[in-house]
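User: Reviewer 2 asked us to show a designed sequence for the structure in our supplementary figure. I'm pasting the C-alpha cells here. Could you produce the per-position amino acids so we can include them in the response letter?
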C-alpha cells in the first residue's frame, strides 16, 4: 500500500475507544473539516512524509466521499476515497480494509473520528480531531478530544496549512456557474 494513502487514512495509533455518536445525522456531517489533532501511542504517525490537512465530505445515498487534502513535502495533493455506511450509525468502510467511525461531533464546530486500517497483518487505530474553522483549534471539541485520549501520550497538533485553505476554497466554490455575457 502506498505510504501516502496510509498517511491520509491513518496516523497510526493503537487506541481503543469504543464510544459512539448515536443517531448521527449524516447530512450535517458533510462539508469542510480541518485536521487539528491526532492522538497516537506511536511516533510513526509523526514521521509521515504526507500530512493530512483537511477533508471535504459529501454524501450520496449511503456512500460517503472523502476528498482529502494533504501536504506532501511542501506540495498540496488531493485524493478522493469512496466508502459506504455500515449497519452502525456513523461507521463507514472503505476499500483496503479501512474504516472511519464518527466518535463525537456537534456538527457545527468539531468532529472526532476513529480511523482504522488493517495493514501488514496488523490493526491500526488513530483518533483525529477536526474543526470546521481554518483558525479555531481549542474549542469545546478539543477538550473532549483530550478527554478521550488522555492516556495515549503522543499528540500531533496540526499546523495552519495552505492545503486546507485551498481545499475549502475549491470545494465551496460554485461548480457550474454560467460564464458572464
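Assistant: Here is a per-position design you can include in the supplement:
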Amino acid at each position: 500500500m502506498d505510504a501516502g494513502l496510509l498517511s491520509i487514512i491513518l496516523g497510526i495509533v493503537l487506541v481503543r475507544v469504543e464510544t459512539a455518536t448515536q443517531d448521527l445525522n449524516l447530512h450535517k456531517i458533510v462539508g469542510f473539516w480541518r485536521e487539528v489533532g491526532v492522538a497516537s501511542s506511536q511516533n510513526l504517525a509523526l514521521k509521515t512524509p504526507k500530512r493530512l490537512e483537511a477533508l471535504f465530505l459529501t454524501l450520496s445515498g449511503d456512500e460517503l466521499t472523502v476528498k482529502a487534502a494533504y501536504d506532501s513535502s511542501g506540495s498540496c495533493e488531493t485524493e478522493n476515497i469512496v466508502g459506504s455506511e455500515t449497519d452502525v450509525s456513523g461507521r463507514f468502510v472503505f476499500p483496503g480494509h479501512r474504516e472511519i467511525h464518527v466518535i463525537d461531533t456537534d456538527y457545527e464546530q468539531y468532529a472526532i473520528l476513529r480511523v482504522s486500517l488493517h495493514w501488514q497483518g496488523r490493526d491500526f487505530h488513530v483518533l483525529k480531531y477536526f474543526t470546521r474553522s481554518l483558525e479555531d483549534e481549542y474549542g469545546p471539541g478539543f477538550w473532549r478530544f483530550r478527554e478521550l485520549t488522555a492516556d495515549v501520550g503522543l499528540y500531533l497538533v496540526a499546523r495552519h496549512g495552505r492545503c486546507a485553505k485551498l481545499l475549502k476554497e475549491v470545494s465551496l466554490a460554485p461548480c457550474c456557474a454560467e460564464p458572464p455575457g
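For the response letter, you might also mention the following. The first helix runs from residue 3 to 9. Residues 62 and 87 are 11 Å apart (CA to CA).
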